[in-house]
Amino acid sequence: MSIVIGTLLVAIVVLNLLDGFGVDPRAASLGGVLSILVLVLLAPQVRGSRHVFLAISVALAGYCLLVLAAPGEVLWPALERASFIIGFFCALASLQHVAGRSPAITRAAAFLANQPPGRRYLALGFGTQVFALMLSYGALSLLGTMARRSAEQEPDPAVRALRARRMLQGAQCGFSASLCWSPLAFATVITTALIPGAMLGPVVAYGLVSALIIVVIGWLVDRRLKGTLPRGTVVPQRDAAAAHDVKSLRPLGWLLAAVAVPSILADVLWDVQPAHTVLGLVPLIAAVWVLIETRRGRWGELGARSRAYTFGDLPGYRAELVLLSTAGFIGTAAGALLLAWLSTHALDLSAIPARVFLVLPILLIPLAGQLGLNPILFVSLFAQVLPSPEQLGVSTISLVMALITGWTLTAPTSPFTASVMIISRLGGVTPAEVAFKWNGAFVLLSALALGIWVQILA
Question: Whole-model pTM above 0.85?
Answer without folding.
Answer: yes
